Amino acid sequence: MSAIPIKNKDGIAKMREACAIAATVLEHLKPLVRPGITTQDLEEAGRDMIARLGARSACFGYQHSGRRYPAHTCISVNDEVVHGIPSFKRILREGDIVSLDIVVWHNGYVGDNAFTVPVGPISPANEKLLRVSLEALSLGIKQAQVGNRIGDISHAIQQHVESHGFSVVRDMVGHGVGASMHEPPEIANFGRKGTGDKIKAGMTLAIEPMVNLGHYKTKTLSDGWTVVSADGSPSAHFEHTVLTTESGPEILTIPRRISAQVSS
Ligand code: MF3
Ligand code: CO
User: Fold this and answer.
1) For 125-159, how does the pLDDT look when each residue is reduced to its tens digit (9 = 90+)?
2) Is 69 in the pocket of ligand 1 (CB under 6 A)?
3) CA 19 to chain centre
4) Which is the most buried residue in 20, 128, 150, 210, by most CB within 10 A?
């Protein structure tokens, strides 16, 4: 197990910037999500916004198992858990749920965040799925306290999700993030209290529950990227990059006012 990087003042300042950009892009996409739009439309809006804010997509060209991710955003609809590839063929319909995942490089640092949004009115079951998943993220973040352990985050997320009859995806995990997209530690969304690495001040952690309405099992589609729930049930994903401090966790992926940002 390699050590969890601790960011110094300069690294933290740069993380703040990268994370604010990632969050601003994500926020910018939210109002565009409506029936009739394609996931490729959202990709292009995301790609352009990342460029306007002077950053680079950390997803585009990202290599995994000998493949390069072909888009600037990850957009996962309904049973797609994560890493959905945007497509002009994928037209959003009322009742869909859409997970948007934005990861950017800026000045040598990475900001990572995601959320799932409804397309128009959605079923009560999906409403509950989104609510519980977002609550699980908040509860996980609350555990990112100096002196706690990583397993405290994992446990809080799992406990909340399962108490509502949903399941946490086990094939993918949250992670440290900083000078690269994935740093130690791995942050599973299931686990036991009091286990794993001790949390110290200056860690930057991407906490990201992926929650299935049905069973937690997943599979990857033949495109090599898109992860779907094996049982076809809907899936939600909420993610923040969080800085640990002596006075508690601080969410870094908070959007800036877009108008101010774009005109500067
Ligand atoms: N937030 C995702 C992750 O942490 C982003 C992956 S980018 C992709 O794994 F290129 F792999 F799609
Ligand atoms: Co992530």
Assistant:
1) 999 999 999 999 999 999 999 999 999 999 999 99
2) yes
3) 12
4) 210
Q: What is the pLDDT of residues 94-132, one digit of tens each?
A: 999 999 999 999 999 999 999 999 999 999 999 999 999
pTM of the model: 0.96
Judged by DSSP in three states, 52 sits in helix
- CB atoms within 5 A of ion ligand 2 belong to 112, 206
Ligand 1, atom 8: closest residue by C-alpha? 59
Asked whether the beta carbons of 219 and 40 are under 8 A apart, the reply is: no
CB 132, CB 164: distance < 8 Å:
yes
Strand partners, 244: 249
In whole angstroms, what is the distance from residue 264 CA to residue 256 CA? 12
State which of 82, 100, 237 you would mutate to test the pocket of ligand 1, scoring each by most atoms of that ligand within 8 A of its C-beta: 82
User: Computed over its alpha carbons, how large is the radius of gyration of the chain?
Assistant: 17
Decide if pLDDT at 264 tops 60: no
Measure the CA–CA gap between 110 and 56, rounded to whole angstroms: 9
Ligand 1 pocket check: which of 50, 72, 83 to mutate, most ligand atoms within 8 Å of Cβ?
83
Index of the ligand 1 atom closest to the CA of residue 177: 4
Please give the CATH number for the structural domain made up of 9-263. 3.90.230.10
